[in-house]
Structures are given as C-alpha cells and as structure tokens.
Amino acid sequence: MKTDLLAFGAHPDDVELSTGGTIALHVNAGKCVGIIDLTRGELGTRGSADLRDQEAKSSAAILGIAFRENLEMKDGLFENDEPHLLKIIAVIRKYQPEIVLCNAVSDRHPDHARGSLLVSRACFLAGLRKLATQNNGSIQEAWRPKAVYHYIQDRHIKPDFVLDISAFMEIKMKAVKAFSSQFYDPDSTEPATPISGKEFMDFLYGRAAETGRMINVAYGEGFTVERSIGVKSLFDIN
C-alpha cells in the first residue's frame, strides 16, 4: 500500500494526543493515512493491553485512517537495536509513506525519545538497498520517506512549524477519549495518574490553543523538523 502519511507512536494514544488533529485533517483531505503503535502500552497503570487494543481500534475508526498496526515491542523495554530497527524498516517499506510523523525528540516518558530516535533512524536505513528485509517471504524494495516530523508531547518544545487544526479539534478529542481507560472518568476506581484527571483534558485544549495562537488560529499542533523546510516563494509561508 502506498501511503501519504504514516504516524508512529511508542504507545497507543501517543498519536491521538499529539497529532490527532493533523491526522484527521489529512484524512479529510483524501490522503491515505495510517498509524503504527510500537507497543501495546502493557505497563500502563490503568487498563490492560487487551483493552487498549480495542480502544485503539475505536480511535482509528473515529479518525477514519486506512490502517493501524501494533508491532508488539515491549513497553518500557524496547531498544534502539538491530531487531527493533528491522521491524520498523519492514513496515516503512511495506507502506512506503511520503511523510512520517513520530514521537517527540525529548519528553517525560523515556519511551517517547527512544521511539523518536528509533523511527527516525529506521527511516534513513529503509532507503539503503543493501539492507535486506522481507514481507510475507518477498524481498522488499528500499524506500525512504521524503520527510520525518516529530510531534510535541507532554513537555513543551518550541515548534519549527504549526498546523492549523481548528476544524478538527473535536475529532481529535473524540479520538483521545476513545482511550477511556487512560483518561478522565469520575466513576473509575483505578489509580490516579498524571493524565487521568479532568485537568489533563483542559491541558490538551490549552496546549492546542496556545500553539494555534502562534499562527493566529484557534487550535494548532506543532512539529519539529530534522532538516530545513524549503519553499518556492515567501508567499507560501502563512
């Protein structure tokens, strides 16, 4: 499958929380969009891996994406090593994305920065013809995405560019709330976490509003880049 946009997250819900509006915007524009979760989030304080699998399916349906896969790496324990790189390289070559989105370069949860580096490195290696991978027994062709952009998560990072998601903020939040085991539920008897309170939902709106304000829109999502972005005219820049 030739894919326009492929978003990676270390855990189910990483993508929704940080770039769900961007996903919804591009699906609405007719782009082929998919999500790859590296782990099942099995070490999370609340819920279970099986429950998060179901929540991820529900969220994918809300966003309208073409596919979602989970690579079932070990939550909290995956490493930037050959076996993990080869898994991601095979996925990149399978879906041939033009653009890849991945975790923040630095964040509170160590899996985020580690996942960020792992996916970025795999995107480069996927373009090397002499590095062999297979899919269903067939040798894969080399493929390197045109761009890798890193979304921003819990900790503030100054974005290199901001996307206007004003028209898609509520779809983003609906997709986030599909992970009901993780977020605010006044009837839950599970332990409280840094993301389970009502104030975290308020934070998501506040972060999107603050980011949107940078470009004079209601809501935005910010990204950092690995290389300079080129434009053909100063009038292409909003």
Q: What would you note in describing this structure?
A:
It is a single chain. With 238 residues, the chain is α/β, with parallel strands linked by helices. 36% of the residues lie in helices and 18% in strands. It has 6 helices and 9 strands; from the N terminus they run βαβαβαβαββββααβ. The protein has a 7-stranded mixed β-sheet, sandwiched between helices. A two-stranded antiparallel ribbon has the order 5-6. Strand 1, helix 1 (14-28) and strand 2 form a beta-alpha-beta unit. Helix 1 (14-28) crosses helix 5. It is globular, with a radius of gyration of 17 Å. It starts with a strand and ends in a 13-residue tail after the last strand. The mean pLDDT is 96.
Task: Pick out its properties.
single chain, 238 residues, alpha/beta, seven-stranded mixed β-sheet, two-stranded antiparallel ribbon, 18% strand, globular
